[in-house]
Design a protein that fits this description.
This protein has a seven-stranded mixed sheet, sandwiched between helices. It has a four-stranded mixed sheet with strand order 1-2-3-13. The protein is globular and about 60 Å long. The protein is built from 13 helices and 15 strands. By secondary structure, the protein is of the alpha/beta class. Strand 2 and strand 3 form a beta hairpin. The protein has two domains: 162 residues, Alpha-Beta Complex (Aspartate Aminotransferase, domain 1), CATH 3.90.1150.10; 259 residues, 3-Layer(aba) Sandwich (Aspartate Aminotransferase, domain 2). Helix 3 runs antiparallel to helix 10, helix 11 packs parallel to helix 13 and helix 12 packs across helix 13. Helix content is 37%, strand content 15%. The protein binds 4'-deoxy-4'-aminopyridoxal-5'-phosphate. 4'-deoxy-4'-aminopyridoxal-5'-phosphate binds next to helix 5.
């Protein structure tokens, strides 16, 4: 099939929400390491990592070999029969996740993992109310679409009752008109009033991403989670931490994002980078909370031997190749370079993030969101062989989440390409 035919079939046989980046959609054929290749053989440096999913580089030989071996040995049994891969994975997760997290339930996507986490919290607390954050993203099922706080992702009106959305810690656009650190964390403290005025006073849980990825890499101040979680705990609510984007060393220095804020979740959700590209959802809870999920509840493919092996192989690669350390080192280098771009280009309103999850909010005068500039930057970076991501409520945040395997040379190349793309936007249009 040629490019034109592939795109025509895409439009004809897929529903329109299966959206594509770029005016002329990029049709990818293969990937290796930090690169992907289109059907005409052109190479692209992948600085979005699929969508924040390629932890260890595309089609990693070691992970692929181990997964294929398992595929040849035993593909499916269902969880009605214990297997070595599922118990080895569950044990490993209990070791590497923070605090007392110990008991896992496996599914096939981040959305299902969030569904499981909420169900667990509701069963454990015998309450149904959930506190989520504005600008957060939780998934595409009915419940997770309703937890998600981006109007454009809510394809049908709000149908799930009991979800309350608190202000997030979006310092660049503070809802309280304050400036960190002189703000006294009003956004976190407001959750007390939110609970007292909009819930029964006994919420099941507070759910949050350590860094809001889809929301535009919104990164709360270091004191935020201690403050907000302590408020939720006073009302006997649990803390569900969504590590779908921040897990597996992406934030550098630590395996999971929330560890930077020194707070221990009661339930944690993981997906995306867990299996370096294979579909997976993981929900892990403390023993007391996890034991509340009893009775008939099952995921046919969850924890299957092949995916469990792919996750174990990914974790092993992250550990043996010291990718958490690399994410920290390269993250610092990348951040310096992005700060350099910010000094040069006034359309970069803020650079934020941690390790290898970084964002640049693109604005005009008075912080007016500039999604049109982002669209132009996308065309230019693609032309020059670089893939980046976008996000934010207004579609004006450039998201940079490369594989954790990148080196300085890759960063230098990506930054030079972005620099040239930014230069194409004349200063006269930025006011
Ligand atoms: N939580 C977060 C933080 C996410 O970013 C996503 C996906 N973007 C999800 C949940 C849902 O994951 P999935 O698309 O695998 O269902």
């Amino acid at each position: 099939m040629d490019k034109k035919e592939i795109y025509e079939k895409h439009k004809k046989y897929l529903v329109p929400c299966v959206a594509t980046y770029y005016k002329d959609p990029l049709i990818l054929d293969r990937g290796k390491g930090n690169y992907v290749f289109d059907t005409e053989g052109k190479q692209y440096l992948d600085f979005f990592g699929g969508i924040v999913t390629i932890s260890v580089g595309h089609c990693d030989d070691e992970i692929t070999d181990k997964t294929c071996e398992q595929m040849k040995k035993l593909q499916h049994t269902s969880t009605l029969y214990p297997s070595v891969p599922i118990v080895s994975l569950a044990e490993k997760l209990a070791w590497i996740t923070p605090g007392k997290l110990q008991k896992s339930f496996f599914t096939n996507s981040g959305s299902e993992a969030v569904e499981t986490a909420v169900l667990l919290a509701q069963l454990h607390t015998e309450s149904h109310e959930i506190i989520a954050l504005r600008h957060g993203y939780s998934g595409a099922t009915l419940l997770t679409m309703n937890i998600t706080a981006h109007g454009n992702y809510r394809l049908v009106e709000s149908l799930v009752p009991g979800i309350k959305h608190a202000h997030n810690a979006y310092c660049f656009r503070c809802a309280f008109g304050k400036e960190y650190p002189n703000c006294e964390l009003d956004c976190a403290k407001d959750v007390k009033e939110l609970i007292e005025t909009t819930t029964s006073g006994h919420p099941a849980a507070f759910i949050a991403e350590p860094i809001q990825g889809v929301g535009g890499v919104i990164t709360p101040p270091k004191e935020y989670f201690k403050e907000v979680v302590s408020i939720v705990k006073k009302y006997a609510g649990l803390f569900i931490c969504d590590e779908v984007q921040t897990g597996w060393g992406r934030t550098g220095k630590k395996m999971f994002g929330i560890e930077h804020w020194g707070v221990e979740p009661d339930i944690m959700v993981m997906a995306k980078g867990a299996a370096n590209g294979a579909p997976v959802g993981i929900t892990i809870a403390t023993p007391e909370v996890g034991d509340s999920l009893k009775g008939s509840h099952l995921s046919t493919f969850g924890g299957n031997p092949v995916t469990a092996t792919a996750i174990l192989a990914t974790i092993e690669a992250i550990e043996t190749r010291k990718l958490v350390q690399n994410a920290e080192k390269m993250g610092m280098y990348l951040r310096d370079q992005l700060n350099g771009l910010k000094e040069k280009h006034r359309i970069i309103g803020e650079v934020r993030g941690m390790g290898l999850i970084q964002g640049m909010e693109i604005v005009k005068a008075k912080k007016e969101p500039a999604p049109d500039f982002v669209a132009e930057i996308f065309e230019s970076t693609k032309e020059q062989g670089l893939l980046i991501g976008k996000g934010g409520l207004y579609g004006n945040v450039i998201r940079i989440t490369p594989p954790l395997t990148i080196g300085r040379g890759d960063i230098d190349q990506a930054v030079q390409i972005m620099d040239r793309a930014f230069e194409k936007i004349p200063a006269s249009r930025t006011v």
